[in-house]
């Protein structure tokens, strides 16, 4: 039975777990076929991947798409949080040119996230308005 991996990350995790199980020092006579490790597919919990039981082709595709978009959205949101922290730290440091550069970077990233649908346009507008105090300061 062939099992299609959900992502490259899950495939790597399963391969490393199966590899470790195959290298383990088992008692003599122990059957080391994939059937004896079938419980691994059930017991290994893959990080941050939803469990979906799709019945139709469109639902299967939607589940794959959901995983892909969720992964992308997490990366974008993490980047936004990092830029926001950098922006806040530059304000507290008291260096106006550093604060201006950080505000511009944060605003640009927020626009890109809005364009791809990760952040709502009103939330982005609110964040950009706050950042504009320092980006447009003379």
Give a topology summary:
Elements: H1 8-23, H2 38-43, H3 57-93, H4 96-115, H5 121-135
Helix pairs in contact: 3-4, 4-5
Give the N-to-C terminal Cα separation.
66 Å
The CATH superfamily of the largest domain is identified as Ribosomal protein S20
The description of the largest β-sheet is: none
Low-confidence blocks of residues: 35-46
At CATH's second level, what is the architecture of the largest domain? Up-down Bundle
Keywords, please?
mainly alpha; Methane Monooxygenase Hydroxylase, Chain G, domain 1; 138 residues; 5 helices
What features would you describe in this structure?
The protein has 138 residues and is an all-alpha fold. The protein has two domains: 7-49, no CATH class; 65-138, Methane Monooxygenase Hydroxylase, Chain G, domain 1. It contains five helices and no strands. Helix 3 (57-93) packs antiparallel against helix 4 and helix 4 packs antiparallel against helix 5. The termini are far apart.
Structure in a nutshell:
The chain has five helices and no strands.
């Amino acid at each position: 039975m062939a099992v299609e991996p959900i992502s490259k990350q899950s495939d790597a995790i399963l391969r490393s777990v199966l590899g470790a199980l195959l290298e383990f020092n088992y008692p003599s006579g122990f059957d080391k076929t994939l059937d004896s490790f079938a419980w691994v597919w059930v017991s290994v919990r893959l990080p941050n991947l939803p469990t979906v039981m799709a019945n139709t082709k469109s639902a299967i595709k939607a589940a794959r798409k959901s995983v892909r978009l969720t992964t992308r959205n997490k990366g974008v949101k993490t980047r936004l949080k990092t830029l926001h922290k950098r922006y806040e730290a530059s304000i507290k440091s008291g260096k106006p040119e550093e604060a201006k550069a950080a505000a511009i970077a944060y605003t640009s990233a927020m626009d890109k996230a809005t364009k791809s649908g990760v952040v709502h346009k009103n939330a982005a507008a609110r964040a950009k308005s706050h950042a504009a105090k320092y980006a447009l300061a003379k």
